[in-house]
Amino acid sequence: MTKILVTGFEPFLDFKINPTMQIVEALNGKKIDSYDIVGRILSVDFQQSAEQLKQHIEEVKPQIIISLGLAGGRFKVTPERIAINVKDGEPDNNGYTPVDESIYEEGEDAYLTNLPIRSMVNRLQGEGYPAEISNTAGAYLCNNIMYEGLAYAQQHKGVRAGFIHIPASFELAIQHGKIPGWNIGDLIAAVQLCIEETARATNH
């Protein structure tokens, strides 16, 4: 069986629930086409999460890496087009607050995803899920992990990698009070469709 590594994040900032955890747990162990899905949760810590991702990649040896992140406030599922070599933004869960830092001093300025993001969006919209391509993953942990995954894919021929931002779940939206939400079952189904499109594109 070929492997797909799907990662999510623990709760962070004022988001006391992170639906990416629930999605990853729901998909872990599932089979899609000829792929086994391996789900893993990352810490919201710039240093630790990058190391954790590398460890998971080494252990799983995936052909496809799809990382998920919460974009509290977005109301569509948004596959990301680009990761930039910048760390910046709010404090992580251990209080680290980088300003205009490089992820890698000698790294590429940016990497474009090689996931079939247009096919993902077309499939999601066709199945009734609001979706669009996003041209910024920000400069926080999500961008950081997307950059790490794409740096790995760049060095390993045939590996696909990328990132999908998801809206809040209803549970988080109710708790937070000021952001839109989706049913968690719909979020899981939407991510599964994205995985199906990636598996199909990789196999053909």
Automatic annotation (TrEMBL):
Q: In the UniProt record, does the keyword Signal occur?
A: no
| Domain of life of the organism encoding this protein | Bacteria
- InterPro entries found in the cross-reference section: Peptidase_C15, Peptidase_C15-like, Peptidase_C15-like_sf, PGPEP1_Glu_AS
The catalytic activity, as recorded, is: Release of an N-terminal pyroglutamyl group from a polypeptide, the second amino acid generally not being Pro
Q: What EC designation does it have?
A: 3.4.19.3
The reply to whether Disulfide bond figures as a keyword in the UniProt entry is no
Q: Which Gene3D superfamilies match?
A: Peptidase C15, pyroglutamyl peptidase I-like
What's the family? Belongs to the peptidase C15 family.
Protein name listed in UniProt: Pyroglutamyl-peptidase I
Q: Which organism is it from?
A: Lysinibacillus capsici
